[in-house]
Structure formats: structure tokens, C-alpha cells
Design a protein that fits this description.
mainly alpha; 2 domains; two-stranded antiparallel ribbon; 2 strands; 76% helix
């Protein structure tokens, strides 16, 4: 009985996180914000949902398979989100108008960057 309650709580928490991610994807205006919310919440939501299935199934070979799925998702989801965000930065010429790109210089001061797309680099 305790196992079912723990699994239900994990499942509800995971579904809540995935629901918040869905609302966040529609609510945010820029592609980079949408990618960020999707990457963070999908990774956590999948962990919680799959953890609830592990708790329900007990210590079986099925649990090991679910653990491998969790590891794969935790490795691949941030990498794929990073690549999609990087493609957005490279291909969107209007991104400087809606986002500030900043980095630290050698003295530790923030400086604003002007990101150029491939079209702007070849034109100049």
C-alpha cells in the first residue's frame, strides 16, 4: 500500500511538472525561452513519472530498463535542447533585438555581445 502511495505522489508530481511545461511553452514569447522551459521541465517530469513506474514495479529487470531510459533522457535531452537553441541563435537575424547576449571579460565585468548570423558575417 505504501508503494502505491509513493508511486502515485511521484506520478502526480511528474504530471504537474509536465503540465507546467506545456503552459510555459505557450506562454513564453521567444524560442529560446520555450526551449529552456521544455528542456528543464521535460527532464524533471520524465524522471518523476519513470521513478513512479520503478516504485510500482519493484526491483525487477523492468526497473533496470526504466533506469536506463532515465539515464538516456538525462543525457540526451539537454544536449538536443542546446543544439536546437544554438541553431536558433545562428539562424535568427532578429535575435539581437529581443535578447541581450552577454559574457564576462577578463576583469569579471559583463559586456554585451553583438551576435552575427552567418548571413551577416558573409555580407560584411
Amino acid at each position: 500500500m505504501l508503494r502505491i502511495i509513493i508511486a502515485a505522489l511521484l506520478m502526480l508530481a511528474g504530471l504537474f511538472v509536465l503540465g507546467v511545461a506545456t503552459i510555459g511553452i505557450f506562454r513564453f514569447s521567444t524560442m529560446l525561452n520555450r526551449i529552456h522551459i521544455a528542456a528543464k521541465c521535460d527532464t524533471l517530469g520524465a524522471l518523476l513519472v519513470l521513478s513512479s513506474l520503478i516504485v510500482l514495479s519493484g526491483m525487477t529487470i523492468f526497473s533496470l530498463k526504466l533506469l536506463l531510459v532515465i539515464i538516456f533522457l538525462w543525457l540526451s535531452n539537454p544536449v538536443s535542447s542546446h543544439l536546437v537553441a544554438r541553431a536558433e541563435v545562428k539562424t535568427n537575424p532578429d535575435l539581437n533585438k529581443i535578447c541581450d547576449f552577454m559574457r564576462f571579460d577578463e576583469q569579471g565585468n559583463l559586456i554585451k555581445l553583438n551576435i552575427k548570423t552567418d548571413d551577416e558575417v558573409s555580407a560584411s
